[in-house]
Amino acid sequence: MDPKHPKGYRLLVGDDKKANVQLQDDFKGEIFMLPVKIQTDKNKEEVKLAFDFSPKGGPKDAVAILGEKGGTSTLTFPDGNVWKKETGIIGVFKDGINPKNIRVIRKDKGSTLAVDLINGRKTTTISAKSGASKVLFDFPGKLQDPGTLNPIENTISFGDGNIWTKF
User: Fold this and answer.
1) What are the pLDDT digits (tens) for 113-138?
2) All domains of the chain, ordered by start, with CATH?
3) Gap between the Cα atoms of 86 and 151, Å rounded
């Protein structure tokens, strides 16, 4: 979650040497895949991530420090911006039927959620309503389709057997 882009998402995937961040600043915005360099300073016990935001008009070498706040992973940038990993239903999931398809769930208003179904370059935004452990998704042609949230396994299970897994 990037507080400067609350209607967007950030998906950071990689290993201890390099990574990529897939991001979108808002519902209708362009999706970017940007390189990230990872540096570990063992003396300071610090991990730094250098982002190249130049393809989207930002700085070429924005360095963030990996940390933790209240049990949640964070990335803190020099300008004071802090990205945090979301918990619960909010966040980025991979589709169980086609793991290349990404599902981004964000708060909209009240208990209403906005869900981006990203299938390659095509994005469809739908709404959903959250309850205690059930979420009702308004998929095209399949309104009020219930999904069951498992917060321990970070999954959402559907009646058709599909299981979304949180990154």
Assistant:
1) 999 998 987 889 999 998 777 899 99
2) 9-84 (no CATH), 91-166 (2.40.128)
3) 12
